[in-house]
DNA sequence: CTGAAAGCGCTAACAG
DNA sequence: CTGTTAGCGCTTTCAG
């Protein structure tokens, strides 16, 4: 009826009626039922955002980017967490799709067959984010982690380091860390350098793990001259360990992390890292969905590869 | 029809039919439409979670707690971000309520009149979290920030510090930081100590801001012997500043933060802080909603006040 | 155990 | 400009 029209600012309604309706709806504390609305109109202003985790600093920033652009549109993000587990991704995706969202933003290019099938058949724009090394269902925005690993390796080799260790997460399910590792070792090999040591962890406080792993590696392989970490948080832990134990940085060992988290800005010396463009990725992904929704398109087929900036900081240069 | 019954495991269906339906639904990649389902059944397995921010380490952990318990139930969290702005809270709440969720978990006790009215009339369980200093709409789970400030002040005074400064966020909209500040100054006053200096910031990298504010305060009031920060991140920045500048901690100045973030575990010396029970708050809040939903109740009227634990660390004791 | 029928609260299209 | 009508795709109830 008319009420619906005024509440949605659609169609022609006289000023008088509009005011009467608005007043009544306010007085009664009326909140429209979007469920019914969505069912009738076949339109839902929700964007499904599916990410592995919320607790490691990287995805909250992606979310910030997404929110920033969606706030300018009628769309709303709804997030689901997979804990890096494909079976959870499948379930979360299924749940989300059953609400018929306007689009999906999902981390990574690796999905189970069932997930992939759902994405392909959803009939809405899909943006896979973070990673560009692979084949997307529809659109993709991210960086090449293989290239990121490679470039870091080249920078380290160019600085003259020779005895290099890798410290990171156990990677069976973190494909992006794995790709960085692969790119890294590959480039080192090309430079004629073999990795001198490596250490992996899972779970626990990253800062603390960084300390522990660093200690382990430096005790096991004392002639190490560079430590490359799979993320900034463990790198920061490693840096603190070195400082506490009188290990000269970067004189005796150099360090580098990955992500470019804000946390590092306040540290001294400043850690070398590579910016993962997290917020920008979120923004671009949201923009694709917003554009499709506005235009009524069910896919965009865009491919945006961002370039991570290497930040030398104070820890990637011979003292 | 029958299909609906098997997909929901309800009612009696013969094994044969069940299998036939399951096979067909899988083959066709059928994803049920929850919108229609929700409209028909008047039941929605969504829990609205409304928080101010996702980027400061505290709310992600609350979310972790919420997710942990909701994962064991049919309920799903849907989060909305307010950026500490009441008008955004209002809008987000309105949007969320229009999806008729099974419950609301919302940060803080301070809401606009309109928001409060919506919460009161929603007819679903509401849990206000983080803070217990005030009057909840329905249930509340959190800590008393006023008391947290007070207890920290007492611990500092008991340790013999006399020239105390407060460093924190600008607080017009962060009611919890404000309450801690009030409790803190109140208790100091009772101990006959007047605050020696204070400094506020807004925005930017917390770690970096912590450094800057610490420098400002120590230069302006050189005889300061204790720095109390409104959160751990700026406290960590302050600690790093002291270490870099040869200021003995806790010999020359003591430091304390607030939140008990995991980040501190890896630092050395270990910062004094007070655990805000973030994950536990999330868990308890989710449990209340889950319980109500299961029992079909539309409110719980529970009040859970957690006790923050003071962690002395290495920075709250005369050297 | 299975089918048929009546809505859920809205939107969209059409008449007045 | 405003009222009426027919669904949206399910769940629920009631008969077979």
From TrEMBL, chains A, B:
Molecular functions (GO terms): DNA-binding transcription factor activity; transcription cis-regulatory region binding
InterPro entries: HTH_LacI, Lambda_DNA-bd_dom_sf, Peripla_BP/Lac1_sug-bd_dom, Peripla_BP_I
Domain HTH lacI-type stretches: 1-41
Keyword annotations: DNA-binding, Transcription, Transcription regulation
PROSITE patterns according to UniProt: HTH_LACI_2
Recorded superkingdom: Bacteria
Entry keyword annotation includes Secreted: no
Name of this protein: LacI family gluconate utilization system Gnt-I transcriptional repressor
Organism: Actibacterium naphthalenivorans
């Amino acid at each position: 009826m008319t009420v619906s029209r005024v509440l949605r600012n659609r169609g022609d309604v006289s000023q008088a009626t509009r005011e009467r309706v608005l007043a009544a709806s306010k007085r009664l504390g009326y909140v429209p039922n979007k469920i019914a609305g969505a069912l009738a109109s076949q339109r839902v202003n929700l964007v499904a955002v599916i990410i592995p985790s919320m607790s490691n600093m990287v995805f909250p920033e992606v979310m910030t980017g997404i929110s920033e652009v969606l706030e300018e549109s009628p769309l709303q993000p709804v997030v689901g967490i997979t804990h890096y587990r494909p079976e959870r991704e499948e379930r979360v995706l299924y749940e989300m799709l059953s609400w018929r969202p306007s689009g999906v933003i999902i981390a990574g290019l690796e999905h189970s067959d069932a997930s992939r099938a759902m994405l392909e058949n959803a009939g809405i724009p899909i943006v896979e984010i973070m990673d560009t090394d692979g084949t997307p269902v529809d659109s993709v925005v991210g960086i090449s982690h293989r290239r990121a690993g490679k470039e870091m390796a080249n920078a380290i080799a160019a600085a003259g380091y020779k005895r290099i260790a890798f410290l990171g997460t156990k990677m069976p399910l973190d494909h992006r860390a794995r790709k960085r590792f692969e790119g890294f070792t590959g480039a080192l090999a090309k430079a004629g350098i073999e990795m001198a040591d490596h250490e992996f962890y899972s779970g626990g406080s990253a800062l603390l793990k960084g300390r522990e792993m660093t200690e382990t590696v430096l005790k096991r392989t004392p002639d190490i001259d560079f430590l490359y970490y799979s993320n900034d948080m463990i790198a920061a832990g490693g840096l603190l360990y070195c400082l506490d134990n009188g290990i000269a940085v970067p004189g005796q060992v150099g360090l580098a992390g990955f992500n470019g988290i804000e946390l590092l800005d306040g540290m001294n010396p400043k850690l070398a890292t590579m910016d993962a463009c997290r917020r920008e990725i979120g923004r671009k992904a949201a923009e694709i969905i917003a554009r499709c929704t506005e235009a009524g398109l069910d896919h965009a087929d865009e491919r945006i590869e961002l370039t991570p900036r290497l930040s030398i900081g104070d820890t990637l240069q011979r003292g």
